[in-house]
Amino acid sequence: MRAIVQKVKKAKVEVAGELVGKISKGFLVFVAVTDRDNKEDIDYIKKKIEKLRIFEDEEGKMNLSVKDVGGDILIVSQFTLYGDVRKGNRPSFINSSSADKAKEYYEILIEELKIDGFKVETGRFQSHMEVSLINDGPVTIQLDSEKIY
After folding, report:
1. Is residue 149 in a domain?
2. Structural domains of the chain, count
3. What is the CATH number of the domain that holds 122?
4. Which residues contact 80 (CB under 8 A, 6 or more apart)?
5. Is 100 among the domain residues?
6. H-helix or E-strand containing 65?
């Protein structure tokens, strides 16, 4: 499972002109699933999102989590995180999971973050989305449950 976490001042997702998700201060998280993923991969990404310390403390050091600052989380599915362009210029998505598995894992991640007390907004799975954000910093962190990076 892969995730791109962006620290944002605000972010929103629209589908066909309809607002489907919106947050203020917090994380915009793009998530992708591969067929190799299992429950442990969801747990790894969830814990990293919850505990990632990229908000500044009173000394200006990145030392606070999204929970510490009372931030929200906007989760957006993005299978293209597994796009592979090592051969040619057209991405191969062979490493992206099936839509059924991706949706199941995406929904589990969202539900588990909510159970842990986070306000979570979402995009709309398998839809053409327009994502708007104000990246704070900018700060963007890559997560990979296979610990490739």
Report:
1. no
2. 1
3. 3.50.80.10
4. 32, 91, 93, 96
5. yes
6. none
Contact 120, 73 (CB under 8 A): yes
**Three-class HEC string of the chain:** CEEEEEEEEEEEEEECCEEEEEECCEEEEEEECCCCCCHHHHHHHHHHHHHCCCEECCCCCEEECCCCCCCEEEEEECHHHHCECCCCCCCECCCCCCHHHHHHHHHHHHHHHHHCCCCEEECCCCCCCEEEEEEEEEEEEEEECCCCC
Angle between helix 39-51 and 99-115 (nearest 10): 40
The residue type of 140 is: T
* pTM attached to this predicted model: 0.96
Q: Is the peptide bond before 91 cis (omega within 30 degrees of 0)?
A: no
Task: Kindly state the helix (H) or strand (E) to which residue 105 belongs, with its residue range.
Answer: helix 99-115
Domain annotation covers residue 44: yes
Q: Which residue has the tokens 């814990």?
A: 47
Run means of pLDDT, 10 residues per run, the chain, 149 residues = 98 98 98 97 98 98 98 98 95 96 98 98 97 97 95
34 within a domain of the structure (yes/no):
yes
Which residues are designated catalytic?
A: 78-80
Tell me which residue range forms the domain holding 74: 2-144
